[in-house]
Amino acid sequence: MKYDFDKVINRIGTNTAKWDEVEMKFGTKDVLPMWVADMDFRIAQPIIDALKERAEHGIFGYTKMSDSYKEAVCSWMEKRHEWKIEKDWVIHSPGVVPALSIIVKEFTKPGDKIIIQTPVYYPFFDVVRDNNRELICNSVKFENEKYVMDYEDLESKIDENVKMMILCSPHNPIGRVWSKEELVKLGEICMKHNIMVVSDEIHADLVYKGHKHIPFASISEEFAQNSITCFAPSKTFNIAGLQSALLSIPNKEYYDKFSLALGALDIRRDNCFGAVATETAYTEGEEWLEQLLDYLEGNLEFLTEYCEERIPKIKVNKTEGTYLVWLDCHELGMSKEELGDFMIKEAKVALDHGYWFGPEGEGFARINIACPRATLEEGLKRIENAVNRL
Ligand SMILES: Cc1ncc(COP(=O)(O)O)c(C=O)c1O
């Protein structure tokens, strides 16, 4: 089946965060939403069909995580990422961020230090700080036109109170798909200092040609035993509203601890639609995903060429994975507040402000390119016209 990603679908009025929360978030309705990470595309037909069939049954009681569901998850992981996982490592969570928060609570104590690599997806800051743990920021470096990990800075910040690292892989917002060598070096430093690695791999399936996602825990048994991996069909298949995420926890002690914490909150079960969508996505969604990746790659090229030719003051970061692209707007010469105001009030586009991702993000904006090309073009025209008016 050929999917039409060019089709513009009106999402206003569906209570969708991206379109219906803009006024609350940006102070005006009069902006084109290109912020929060979901896509303006209709999802894979087999998932829609399976949800319809489930809805037609008419009874939506408590849901069991079936064997076939776990098999679908394991097969996907092996097929797409060459990581053989066992069914009894797999556990459900109502989201990756809630899982991160539970992990922080269960595996560290108040006052312990947790490392994140900034600029990074901003809820990482909250899950550390709101749980009264100390946040340690290990900034990434920009070297030879590419963001890389700063291991020296990392080692200099490690002391006996550092207990955990939350890794973003692939990394939002800098779009890096970490290489095996980079992950090995990071993992070895963490092993040496007894730092548990929590690897958020929610963007794992959204990787462009020439790059390969390596699950951190797939690298070695040592790394697998020292880590928890979070992933989900939500970004890949555009089903974030179904609140279904997954974890793979090969370390039995860690698994039991996490499972007990979910049990205490009584959130071990998936919701019945989330379960159906997840299983169907992982068994029948690949054709859609392949077409999506081609389309997104086209959007990334379009964005890059558009900025080079028509908005040269905005530099598009080389993005290896995710549909979230980091725009360097320093040449516009604005403070972080001025840049935010400029995008909202002058260009009338709602982008994620760079500084939300940490102080390293000042002077940047993050654009979500998971929309029909016509929408992307409209957003870029708005920015171009506003820059020309400066
Ligand atoms: C790195 C990362 N982790 C987690 C999430 C959200 O996960 P969830 O909605 O499952 O909590 C996002 C969403 O943008 C993300 O970029």
TrEMBL record:
Annotated Aminotransferase class I/classII large domain residues:
39-383
* Molecular function (Gene Ontology), one example: transaminase activity
Instruction: Write down the InterPro entries for this protein, in alphabetical order.
Output: Aminotransferase_I/II_large (IPR004839), C-S_lyase_PatB-like (IPR027619), Class-II_PLP-Dep_Aminotrans (IPR051798), PyrdxlP-dep_Trfase (IPR015424), PyrdxlP-dep_Trfase_major (IPR015421), PyrdxlP-dep_Trfase_small (IPR015422)
Could you tell me what this protein is called? cysteine-S-conjugate beta-lyase
**Which organism is this protein's natural source?**
Clostridium aestuarii
The alphabetical list of record keywords is: Aminotransferase, Lyase, Pyridoxal phosphate, Transferase
Query: What does the sequence similarity comment in the record state about its family?
Result: Belongs to the class-II pyridoxal-phosphate-dependent aminotransferase family. MalY/PatB cystathionine beta-lyase subfamily.
Instruction: Write down the required cofactor(s).
Output: pyridoxal 5'-phosphate
Q: What is its EC number?
A: 4.4.1.13
